[in-house]
Specification:
- Helix 4 packs parallel to helix 6.
- The protein has a single domain, classed as HAD superfamily/HAD-like (Rossmann fold, 3-Layer(aba) Sandwich), CATH 3.40.50.1000.
- The protein starts with a strand and ends with a helix.
- Strands 5-4-1-6-7-8 form a six-stranded parallel β-sheet, with helices on one face. Strands 2-3 form a two-stranded antiparallel ribbon.
- By secondary structure, it is an alpha/beta fold.
- The longest helix is centred in the N-terminal third of the chain and has 13 residues.
- The chain is built from six helices and eight strands.
- 28% of the residues are buried.
- Helix 5 links the parallel strand 4 and strand 5.
- The chain binds magnesium ion.
- The site of magnesium ion has 7 residues, from loops.
- GO terms for molecular function: 5'-nucleotidase activity.
């Protein structure tokens, strides 16, 4: 069986909507995902980097993120044909471990704990494919990177792109 590694934030879990909502509420702004095309919120508002980080360092931030549409059905289906590993760069936010683990158990109960990998540098991951919204993880990855569209990466052209889980399904199960 070939092996697919899958990132969590902005691939399985809708990170940006909650992050934007918290920022807009606290700073009385009305930024939308359109404002984030080609950049991350911390690049759009560099003076607020500290506050933007603090949201993510809250232990519960990741616990109630919305599930990306179609991800549950497609990952379940993929798991019948591929070995699936969830690979999240959780070391960047160690306070997130418990919330991320509980979130996976709640929304993806069919995945074994043995297939969840909290990592730092993803180049250690030995898989045939990595589905991720951050192209930086592909540079030293030995398999094929599949870029999952997120507002910040719309201008990235170096990798195969999937815009949603329907397209992931078409790529792997055609
Ligand atoms: Mg991500």
């Amino acid at each position: 069986m070939k092996r697919i590694a899958i990132d969590m934030d902005e691939v399985m879990a809708d990170f940006v909507t909650k992050h934007l909502y918290l920022y807009n509420s606290d700073f009385n702004e009305s930024l939308t995902k359109k404002d984030l095309l080609g950049k991350k919120l911390r690049h759009l508002r560099p003076g607020r980097e500290k506050e933007l980080m603090e949201y993510i360092d809250e232990p519960d931030f990741f616990r109630d993120l919305e599930v990306m549409e179609g991800s549950q059905e497609v990952i379940r289906e993929l798991s019948e044909h591929y070995e699936i590993f969830i690979t999240t760069a959780a070391m960047e936010h160690p306070a997130s471990f418990t919330a991320k683990y509980e979130w996976l158990n709640e929304h993806f109960p069919f995945l074994s704990d043995m297939n969840i990998v909290f990592c730092g540098d993803k180049s250690i991951i030995h898989a045939d494919y990595l589905i991720d919204d951050n192209a930086r993880h592909f540079r030293r990855f030995t398999g094929q990177g599949i870029l999952f569209t997120s507002p910040h990466n719309v201008n990235e052209t170096d990798y195969v792109r999937v815009n949603n889980w329907k397209e992931v399904r078409e790529f792997f199960l055609k």
